[in-house]
Design a protein that fits this description.
Length: 253
């Protein structure tokens, strides 16, 4: 199996859609990397759908997003919440609309600054960084710009989480096509099953996707996350640790 020879220290995690399993997959990657002795952190720079905590204790309760909390729990180093999830909007809707409702505007420049800062902080702590997107690859930031524009500007390698259900072939090919059109590297892909009901002809679909990612992007299936899988240590390793820059655990602050 030929994986890219390059090793990465910062990778963007996208999905074929919202609820594709990006957070679930990112948690599993972080825990698995920790298990294999690599210090990697995950962030969720932009989240929509939040709840207030410490309402009874503070005049200014903090708004938190469940994806960001899951990633914080998986991370081997603890960051202040605002570092991990600087943009956290209340309504569980398209983030740029949620932002508008709070009198905020999103832009590629804003996201570029946030991602650059997260990358620098991770580097200072000698940790690798997985950045979870929101929604699918072309998540709008405003009427003109998308989160994909930011990933292109920062030239980040991408992991694609594919939700294995009918329609995923089209979604995966569209996502892959646009990532490659922008000249970005696909570091690998992950098959995810949020639904307890396995799709018909799962194996044929998986084989199609394996061939498509390999032929078009020289990218391999990194993890196959069957519905309900829990044991990170036992997740089948497909040689994917080759991709991740080895950052020995315990080097962080
Ligand atoms: N392999 C799996 N087994 C069981 N549950 C899963 C699996 N993958 C995802 N899920 C569940 O499916 C739901 C959607 O997954 P997840 O939150 O990871 O999606 P997402 O792509 O991160 O969505 P968003 O766009 O909101 O960030 C969650 O409740 C998650 O726990
Ligand atoms: C609220 C939800 N869980 C996601 N975080 C945001 C999904 C945005 C999707 C935008 C769209 O492509 O229509
Ligand atoms: Mg998520």
């Amino acid at each position: 199996m030929s994986l890219h020879k390059r090793k990465y220290d910062c990778i963007f995690v996208t999905g074929t859609d919202t609820d594709a399993g990006k957070t679930f997959a990112t948690e599993k990657l972080i825990k698995s990397l920790s298990y294999h002795g690599h210090t990697w952190l995950a962030t969720k720079p932009i989240a929509s759908g939040s709840r207030a905590i410490n309402e009874d204790k503070s005049e200014h309760p903090q708004k938190v997003n469940d994806d960001a909390l899951k990633l914080a729990n998986a991370n081997p180093l603890q960051w202040p919440y605002e570092w991990l999830n600087p943009l956290c909007f209340q309504q569980p809707i398209a983030p740029h609309i949620a932002a508008q409702q709070e009198g905020r505007e999103l832009s590629a420049a804003l996201l570029r600054n946030i991602l650059t800062e997260q990358k620098q902080r991770a580097q200072q702590q000698q940790a690798g960084l997985l950045i979870e997107g929101a929604g699918g690859w072309l998540l709008p930031l405003n009427q003109q710009e998308t989160l994909a524009d930011v990933i292109e500007q920062l030239n980040l390698p991408v992991i694609v989480v594919v939700r294995m259900q009918l329609g995923c072939l089209n979604h995966a090919l569209l996502t892959l096509t646009d990532i490659l059109r922008r000249g970005l590297i696909v570091a690998g892909w992950i098959a995810s099953e949020p639904s307890p009901q396995r799709m018909l002809n799962y194996t044929e679909n998986l084989e199609f996707l394996k061939a498509a990612f390999r032929q078009r992007a020289n990218a391999e299936l990194l993890l196959e996350l069957a519905h309900g899988c829990t044991d990170t240590a036992a997740i089948e390793q497909r040689g994917y640790t080759n991709l991740f820059k080895s950052v020995p655990a315990g080097n962080g602050v």
